[in-house]
Amino acid sequence: MTAYDAVLFDSDGVLVEPPPAETQSTATRAAFREVGVDDPDRRHVEAVVDGITVEELEGICAAYDLDPETFWEAREHHDERSQLDEFERGVRGRYDDVSAITDLPVDCGVVSNNHHTTIEYVLTQFGLEPAFETYYGREMTIESLELKKPNTHYLERAMADLAAESVLYVGDSESDIVAATRAGLESAFVRRPHCRETELEVAPTYDLGDLHDVADLVCGDGRRGRS
C-alpha cells in the first residue's frame, strides 16, 4: 500500500543540477546584444535571471525602447541553448539518487518552471522517459511567466493527466512548496547542496535529505522526515 496515488517532481535542483546563475546571466546578456543593447544595466540582467514578471519585463524593455516579444524570444533562445550546451558538455548532470525514484509503484510526472522543450530534452538525455507518465514546463512566451510556480497551472494539468487525488510534489524551492499548498497537495522539500541552509517561510509536509527519502516515504511508512 503506497502513501500516494502519484508523485510529481520539479526538475532543476531535484532531478538534475540547476543552471548556474552566471550561465543564465551570460545568456541574458547575449540576448540583449542580439537586439542591439551591448551594455545592459546589471540590475536588469539580474531581474531577468531571478524570475521576472511580465510587468517588470515590459518596464525593462521600455528603458531600451525594445519590443518585449522580440527581446523575450531572443532571451529564451539563448537561455535554452546555454542549458543544452552544459548538459551536452557534462557541466550539468543528473543527480545520482534519481535512480531511487525511477521505478516507483505509482504514476509520476515532472512539473518545472523551465522550458517545456528543455524538460523534454532532460528526460531523453538521461533516459528518464520511462519513469514519468507526464511532464510540463512552460512555453517560451511572455504569457507563460504568469503561469510559473507558485501558480498551480502546470501542477493541475499534470494532476489531471494522472487522474490522481492523493499527490505528493517534490521540490527544492519556496515557490514549489507554495504551489503545492495552493493546489492542495502534500509537499516534500529536498535539501540539495544549493538549498541546504534555506529557511522556508512556508513549511513543507516533509523536509528530506534526498530522493532515497522520497522513495521511502512513497513506498513505506517513511514518516521520519515529517516537518
Automatic annotation (TrEMBL):
The keyword Oxidoreductase does not apply. InterPro entries: HAD-like_hydrolase_sf (IPR050155), HAD-like_sf (IPR036412), HAD-SF_hydro_IA (IPR006439), HAD_2 (IPR041492), HAD_sf (IPR023214), PGP-like_dom2 (IPR023198). GO terms for molecular function: phosphoglycolate phosphatase activity. It comes from the Archaea. Keywords: Hydrolase. Pfam families: HAD_2. One of its GO terms (biological process) is DNA repair. Gene3D superfamilies: HAD superfamily/HAD-like (3.40.50.1000), Putative phosphatase, domain 2 (1.10.150.240). The keyword Heme does not apply. PANTHER family: PHOSPHOGLYCOLATE PHOSPHATASE. NCBIfam families: HAD-SF-IA-v1. Belongs to the HAD-like hydrolase superfamily. This is HAD family hydrolase. It comes from Natrarchaeobius chitinivorans. The lineage of its organism: Archaea, Methanobacteriati, Methanobacteriota, Stenosarchaea group, Halobacteria.
